Amino acid sequence: MRIKKILRVNPFKFVRWNFFSKNVIRDKGMYLITNWGSVVDISKSAKVILHSHFAINTPKYKHSREEAYVLLRDGAELTINGSVTLASRSTIQVQKDAKLAIGTAHINHESSIIIGGNTTIGDGILISRDVKIFDSDFHKVLDEDGNQTNNTKPMRIGNHVWIGLGAIILRGSQIGDGAVISAGSVVMGKIKAGTNAIGNPARSFSNIRWEA
């Protein structure tokens, strides 16, 4: 099994990002694991801070040519605080001067995390397929006086949160520890800790009891 995992890694990208890049700052023994099909684009003024492993395009299926994407623009900062896996056809993108911190998390296929401000994602996170997490609209909406009405807002996703299939998490959202976001829900505000949130906009309807 260990040999199979090693064979999945693109050795050229692994060596480049872990040993020859000043933009990747690693704790001892922690690595940016670039499986075949990993697309990593880090601006010269951006940085990735690894306090744990970050595996890109995991799991990598036999004979698959699908890709996973990690994109950091000028001045961006991505901090990996716990082991993170990013599955194929998924994207983490941190825009100019933005910051994203992630704890232990599995990000499933076809999901996107695109950050324009300052967002924190906790430990023990399960992100299902086709989930979208955006803390900005990435365009301006102006009122009649020319003032922007859709400013980027900080976002926080707590610990031990499960985000269901096709859910959308939008700017300013604050999701408490232990919450479950049901499939297809749209979060646009606060979700109480330990509750099941459903709908558009999502609202808490029941309490959750997690078994160890």
Short description:
The chain is mainly beta and 212 residues long.
Count of distinct strands: 24
Strand content: 35-45%
Strand order of the largest sheet: 2-5-8-11-14-17-20-23-24
Average pLDDT reading: 89
Q: Which secondary-structure class do the elements indicate?
A: mainly beta
Outline: globular
Number of helices: 2
Any low-confidence stretches, pLDDT <50, length ≥5? none
- How much helix, percentage-wise, in residues? under 10%
Write the H/E string, N to C.
HHEEEEEEEEEEEEEEEEEEEEEEEE
- Distance between the ends: 28 Å
Radius of gyration: 18 Å
Report the major sheet.
9 strands, mixed
Please characterize this protein's 3D structure.
This protein is mostly beta strands and 212 residues long. The chain has two helices and 24 strands. The chain has helices at residues 2-7, 11-19, and strands spanning 24-26, 32-34, 38-42, 47-50, 54-56, 68-72, 77-80, 84-86, 91-94, 99-102, 105-107, 112-115, 118-121, 125-127, 132-134, 155-157, 162-163, 168-169, 174-175, 180-181, 186-187, 190-191, 195-199, 202-207. Strand 23 (195-199) and strand 24 (202-207) form a beta hairpin. It is globular, with a radius of gyration of 18 Å.
